[in-house]
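Researcher: Before we compare anything, I want clean individual predictions. No alignment, no superposition, just each chain on its own. First chain goes here; please echo the sequence and then give the structure tokens.
Model: Echoing the first chain and its structure:
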Amino acid sequence: MIGFLIRAAVVAVGLWVASSIVPGIAFASNGTLIWAALALGVVNGLVRPIMVVLTFPITILTLGLFLLVVNGLMIQLVAHFLTGFHVEGLLPAILTSIVVSLTSWVISWLVGPSGYEVYVVHR
């Protein structure tokens, strides 16, 4: 559970950065931003794997680039169900998914693997 919350916090930072630099992405409040990060974590855990399997042939044909569309669709799905999170189309959603991914990568690089050892339960 702690790992999920840490990843949600990192996604929240990525969504905040995306809302600052990507036109067409808006949050009504910081609370909405946090709920969007939590909802995106749930959607990425439940819906995204199904979408990846269903779109596997086109993903192969596009050499994996179609996964950007799948990620954008996951952001649009969260925006559809969450009041206060506004996405103006697929292109801003795809750009947001790229910004969130890059932000997560940078934070992971800065923290390093030792930053996650604190949250691992040793048996």
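Researcher: Okay. Second chain, same rules.
Model: Second chain and its structure:
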Amino acid sequence: MDIGEFTGFELSLRNPGIAWFQFNTPERLNGMTTRIKRDLIEAVTQAQMDNAVRVLVFTGSGRAFCAGDDLKAYGSAELGSNALVPDIPPGHDSALGTYNGLRTISQQLNTCIRNIDKLTIAAINGVAIQTGFSLALSCDFRLAATTARLGSATLRFGLLPDEGGQYLLVRMLGLPKALEFLMRKKIASAEEALALGLVTEVVEPDQLEAATMALAEELADGPQVSMRLLKRSLYNAAELDWHAALDEIAAKTAISDHHPDAREGVSAFHEKRQPSFNTWLKDQS
């Protein structure tokens, strides 16, 4: 996959196979534009298809993770750096333009992150509002610095959480708490977000990168095929009935039970040692 500095973010590959996405417009509080979102969609798609990538991490720079859309830059996303995809009109100039822009780009970014089989982590270093909030909720794991603040608060402007945040909050908080969170325009501190279950861990700001890397390395060293199958099965289980969920995981087990990682896991158990998974990936590098 392409590595380097792109429109609105930098992308590096850390061992063992950790794609590190760093939003790099702190002067704009890492606000998003159409160009940035399209480049992110392309980069995440490349990561999905690249066997060198096992885990994806998203984080910000400065005092924000992402403070929402950068409305001032939407007209011309001249943020410097390289572009992964060609420019298109920003849209949102009419009702139809807003609908198409949301379905094709803004919502597609979070759909792309949720659809990727590889595990994803949001390292929330600062404020994560609306676009940044929904992106973080779309990840599988969320670690937050004590300086983080999370919320949608779109009703403060008479707007809607239009990038999937309402769906994700209902599933994470339940309907009553999601109603209160969104209708009362709440911005949660890191500790409040932890109590609500919106983040999995809170650390000091200077410990966020190390804590994120520790989790990413743990996930990257795990049996990748089984983990990716299990991730998809868990997401599917939230939508399926009992019988469909049983059939779905039976089909995936027919793959994982016959994979070399399963043989290695059983051998390591009998030999009382730590398993060495992912030989298939190392052979391809």
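Researcher: What stands out in the second chain?
Model: The first strand starts at residue 4 and ends at 6. Additionally, The chain has a mean pLDDT of 93.
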